Amino acid sequence: MKLFLPIYLAIFILWAPSIGNSQENKPTKHALLFAISDYPEKGGWDKLSSSNDIVHISKALQWIGFQPSCIVTVTDNKVTVPGIKEAFNDLNNRIKKGDIVFIHFSGHGTQVEADRDNKIDGLDECLVPYDALSLEKIDINDSIQLNNEMAKYLRGHVLGDLLKQIRAKLGSKGDLVVTLDFCCSGGATRGANKVRGGKAPLVSKNFNPSKHKVSDSSQLFKQTLTSFQDQQLSSYNVISATRPEELDTETKDENGKEIGPLSYALYQSFSQLNPNTTYRSFFARIQGMMNISAQDQHPVLEGNAATRTLFGGSYLQQTAFFEINEIINEKKITVKGGAVAGLGVGAKLLVHGAGTTDPTLKKPIAKGTVVFTDNFIATVQLEEPLNFKQVYDGWVFISDPVYNINPVALQIATKPSTTKYSAFTLEDAKKIASSLSSFPSVDLQSKPDLLLVKGIEKDSLIVASNGYFFSELSSVLSNTDDLKSKLKQYIQHQFLLGLQAKTEGISMEVKLVPVVNDKADTNLIESKKINGLYEFTEGDEITLSIKNTGKKPAYINILDLQPDGIINAILPKKIAGENQKPILPNSLRFIPSETSFVFDPKEFKIRIEKPYGNEVFKIFVSDKEIDLEDIANTKGAPTRGDLSVLESLLKESYNGVHKRGNDKADGTISEIIFRIKPQLTK
Question: How far, in Å, CA of 512 to CA of 85, rounded?
């Protein structure tokens, strides 16, 4: 099993300009471009076309305001570990707070035996400098030579430290973007084009990955930082040419010359910017272009500033959108989103230009209606012809979704149940019921799920089955909007409780591990089970054990469904608590393994708290990276386009959606049920 993070290939750092009128505060745009084309034959690495990457990127940077004197290139025999560190040091001496910096790296990528016992598979992801020898060129029986050659690779965590220094120098107003144009996985070369990597990992003859008991990623920005520390650094975005397990295969430029696919997509995208281009919309254009030039590759966007406009602009609110899958003809398209995303037959859609943040502010290019749908792809008949021919030139927004609604049964209490609550009068109850008559997510006739009770100062919703307090409300008689919002939250909780999905080959085993004196004790797991059900006492502390029991690498997310209807994100946890380590969505990728990974309680643990009763950890596993924490924290508010099916299911649940039948899925959903008891009183 592996907690795997991608190696990075092309590195961009973009910094936000400072606000001010003085020349001293005016930001300067810097670029640092690394490229290795002419790898020496003795190293065993194929020659590449990285020099063409630099030609195109340098030209594109000048289009968008970088001065030639501020674009520094480091190529071929100068791209060694010492050379890279020297270039970063020079850059750090030139920049000031608020500057804009762009760094690009093109070359080979690979894996090398980890230099610390902190990788579950024992491998570090590395950039391949000019002078690094590949495995077949090294005598692994010669430990001195092997160690010397391993030292020539630039490990991801070392590069991460260099970039952290840049982020610190530029400060909290900075805007860091990293893009990487090489692969970092083993496997055979596909096709006739050059592959940037693809060799077996460099390991010693006695390599033993099982000795690595703790997992930490060498991802460039995977730093052990508190949220306060991270706020002192720049924001950042990372664009990688591939997923961690994919090869990066060169493509052809406009003149038929070979070039890195991400580099060429960047070059094309920089020529089509507008003032409202965010990193998310910029990445969407790159995705579309790479879908044409490198169909087997899936670029990845990571970071904490996706809604910021390029080169230090402001943050924009992005309305959720869908990407166009195919343009069948000028009046018919297919969209990447089907029934599970609200695109049922009859759903109304709007087509706008790519990069549109708010579709209500401008006239759409075309309006359309879904005429056919399966779970993931919807066919849309348009009323007007499109004025573009490439799928990446347009985004699709929902104006009227089509869902199946599963309403929540609500009873308005007209008799006080306890001295704590008073009662609504019959006249008040009729008024509230009338205000909910047009709200499709409520049923006032069935056996109640929730009780609406009148409080002395504020009203409340109570879970009918167990009497738990669910939510406090503002005055329902004067405003039912708050009530409707809370009803949707309860529907979402019930939806998730009943959600199940299974995809062949995708599964993980999760165990709740007791924590004693800040140490995980796996020997106590079974002692916490009563008749097969976990049972914990208020105040207990636990961590998690995870093992990929499937057939291929997958990502995991976990949500906590409390018995009072409250939902908490367990994994990922991007904003960590005090003395805890952030856990990012891209760090939750595990490969199939016979061994389990146990989180270190000093970095991640869960304290068992009230309410008492049965609680559920809902486990989402997918072969695509997912982030259910963001959707949960924003209560389903728009985040980005092209959601995975699992993300769409969660997002829909905030809108009272319930799907029936055997929907397809791109992942597996399971659960752990555990009971929480009060502490014994003396």
Answer: 43
Sign of CA dihedral 277, 280, 283, 284: negative
pLDDT in tens, 457-504: 788 898 888 787 888 888 898 888 889 888 877 877 777 777 777 888
CB atoms within 10 A of CB 29: 20
209 DSSP assignment: G
Alpha carbon 633 to its chain's center: 14
CATH class of 508-677: mainly beta
Strand partners, 510: 546
Residues 202 and 409: their CA atoms lie apart, in Å, by 61
Task: Please state whether the peptide bond connecting residue 209 to the residue before it is cis, i.e. omega within 30 degrees of 0.
Answer: no
**What is the model's pLDDT at position 314?**
76
What is the model's pLDDT at position 659?
36
CATH architecture of 408-497: 2-Layer Sandwich (3.30)
Q: What is the pLDDT of residues 351-398, one digit of tens each?
A: 999 878 889 989 999 999 999 986 568 899 999 999 998 888 899 998
Q: In what order do the strands lie in the sheet with 408-412?
A: 442-443, 408-412, 450-453, 459-463, 469-473
**Mean pLDDT value across residues 234-259:** 84
Three-state DSSP class for residue 648: helix
H, E, C per residue of 258-296: EECHHHHHHHHHHCCCCCCCEHHHHHHHHHHHHHHHCCC
Q: CB–CB of 129/193 below 8 Å?
A: no
* pLDDT digit string, tens, across residues 306-335: 778 888 777 777 787 888 989 999 999 999
Q: 378 and 343 in contact (C-beta within 8 Å)? A: yes
Which among 550, 542, 527, 496 has a CA at the least distance from the CA of 670?
Answer: 496
Q: Enumerate residues 6+ apart whose C-beta is below 8 A from 606.
A: 541, 542, 543, 544, 570
Domain boundaries, the chain: 23-303, 322-400, 408-497, 508-677
105-125 burial, b at 16+ Cβ within 10 Å, e below that, comes to bbbbbbbbbbbeebbbbbbbb
**CATH class held by domain 23-303:** alpha beta
Which pLDDT value is given to residue 41?
A: 93
Residue 380 contacts residue 346 (beta carbons within 8 Å) = no
509-535 pLDDT tens trace: 999 999 999 999 999 998 898 877 899
- Torsion 322-326-327-329 (CA) sign: negative
CA–CA separation, 365 vs 382, rounded Å?
A: 10
Please give the CATH topology (third level) of the domain spanning 322-400. Answer: Elongation Factor Tu (Ef-tu); domain 3 (2.40.30)
